[in-house]
Specification:
- Helix content is 0%, strand content 40%.
- It has no helices and 10 strands.
- Strand 4 and strand 5 form a beta hairpin.
Length: 177
């Protein structure tokens, strides 16, 4: 600022003659978020005590396959009927209980899967319209906690010790991502 030939501004810092400073821009306005459908993140983490390996019994092989994408698949075969998955079996029944859940599914397609499907792949863990994991299509929401699985396979022949029903029972824990 200058008053009567006295200035307290360094002339070297002055803009050149005719310079017009730019008009400052207004602050950005908030853009409302778009309505998008939430997508399920990674599948729930499964910690379990599922019996692993095979279940050799009088030419019967059975294995519970655990995978977070589809939860459980039952690979079972009676070798007296063939070596393909599901040989000598009629169906598998899956029961999941715990945390207020009572899920049941009878699966008739070998490569028996808890949410359906079968060979070569199982159906993935179902989700609701908001992308949250559910116990079956339209079932209750999956919550963190302790659960119990029971898998019963109905066989085409009677085993002297087990009859025509073979069972796998085990606890497991679900942790959501």
């Amino acid at each position: 600022m200058c008053i009567r030939d006295r200035c307290n501004i360094d002339p070297a810092t002055m803009p050149p003659p005719g310079f017009i400073p730019p008009t400052p821009l207004p602050p950005p306005t908030a853009v409302p978020p778009t309505a998008t459908r939430p997508v399920a993140s990674a599948p729930p983490d499964i910690d379990n005590d599922a019996p692993g390996g095979s279940f050799p019994r009088d030419n019967v092989l059975g294995e519970v396959i655990v995978n977070p994408t589809f939860l459980f698949r039952m690979d079972v075969r009676d070798l007296t009927f063939g070596s393909h998955e599901g040989a000598g079996t009629n169906f598998a029944e899956f029961s999941i209980t715990g945390n207020g859940v009572d899920y049941f599914r009878r699966e008739g397609t070998a490569g028996y899967c808890v949410f359906g499907g079968g060979e070569p792949t199982c159906n993935p863990w179902p989700t609701d319209d908001l992308g949250r994991y559910t116990w079956g299509e339209g079932g209750p929401l999956v919550e963190n906690g302790e659960y119990f699985a029971s898998i019963t396979v109905n066989a085409q022949r009677d085993d002297p010790e087990f009859g025509n029903s073979w069972n796998w029972n085990f606890p497991f824990r679900v942790t959501l991502p």
